[in-house]
Design goal:
The protein is an alpha+beta fold. Helix content is 44%, strand content 14%. The radius of gyration is 19 Å and the shape is globular.
């Protein structure tokens, strides 16, 4: 019994040490300029599939062609922004009407933080989108979550504008 308690205490201590190692370095901070850059990033994303949020009526692939497929996140956050809800709901409706369709949710982070932390952050972001879709009647078997962390930036650069466009999840329809 005593050995079991020691094992539990050691496991708890290792978990705390691991969590502390995954925290951000604190060398950067969010500011109004970062939020403004994120706003500028969404405007620049019109070429990447930002749509009007019009619903899916017939359940065809053409219905989802004009929907947003790139969803941006705030610094060090994995909360889905309300501005993407309409498009995500339309994607969910399409997927619910077409159980043979599937998507890959590719999570990304900017270059700040360790490689390991950014991989985990990209995964949390993709899983947040996955949960949103599942709450809106999408079967989990239709969703694949992958994280690229900081490895595949959308924009090369070391400034707030570049970082804001790299904090994203991309939805990619795949054939099975």
């Amino acid at each position: 019994m005593r050995a079991t308690n020691l094992t539990k205490a050691a496991a708890l201590a290792l978990t705390v040490v691991w969590a502390a190692g995954c925290s951000t370095t604190g060398t950067t901070s969010d500011s109004g300029a970062d939020a403004a850059a994120a706003g500028a990033g969404t405007g620049a994303a019109s070429a990447q599939g930002v749509g009007t949020g019009a619903g899916v009526s017939g359940g065809s692939m053409q219905d989802v062609a004009n929907l947003r497929t790139v969803f941006y996140f705030d610094f060090d956050k994995s909360v889905v922004k309300a501005e993407g809800f309409a498009d995500l709901e339309a994607h969910a409706k399409y997927l619910a009407l077409n159980p043979g369709a599937s998507i890959r949710l590719e999570g990304h982070a900017d270059e700040r933080g360790t490689r390991e932390y950014n991989m985990a952050l990209g995964e949390r972001r993709a899983k947040a989108i996955s949960r949103f879709l599942q709450v809106n009647n999408v079967n989990a078997d239709q969703l694949e979550v992958i994280s690229y962390g900081e490895e595949k930036p959308a924009v090369l650069g070391h400034d707030r504008g570049s970082w804001s466009q790299n904090r994203r999840v991309e939805l990619k329809y795949v054939s099975r």
